[in-house]
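Suppose a colleague, Dr. K., hands you the sequence of a protein chain of 183 amino acids and asks what its three-dimensional shape might be. Before reaching for any lab equipment, you can write down a predicted structure in token form. Begin with the sequence itself:
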Amino acid sequence: MKNIFSILKLTAVTLVLFAVIYPLSIYGVAQLAPNQGKGETLSVNEKVIGYQKIGQKFDKSNYFWGRPSAVDYNAAGSAGSNKGPSNAEYLALVQKRIDTLLLVHPYLKKADIPSDMVTASGSGLDPNVSPQGALIQVKRIAKERKLDEAKVKALVESKINTAVVGPESVNVLELNIALDGLK
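The predicted structure, expressed as tokens, is then:
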């Protein structure tokens, strides 16, 4: 009986600690962060249209496409594919992505396709592509939107983020918002 009382006491203490005190303290700290811990949103005409740090699905031909996602851009289920580079199913999926890019961008050669355009990131929610990944899409987008190719290329180049550490990148949502602003 003595052990049961001790176990119940420990259960009650840990329940209060981890189900009440810890979540409330995290919530309190989040209120000090920009946007009260709700993430960095991007708005157009005061309407939130997306999150800057979470990849979103763009599959229309008149928009820049981001990296493929192993979780179909579901932020609640962030994950990679967990398939290695020698997995036959994974290789078939990558080949399908390559074939799709070559079909939609007939001016490309397989060697021109950057790896980030056919492989999902570890989280499946990468909001960025490499500058090369954005630049290979310029011709398609200029044609679809009836814009000057040089103007679209200049837009991409203006959106390249240079990091202190790590490779250059282009945020796809920011780029597509700016693209909608082009005349």
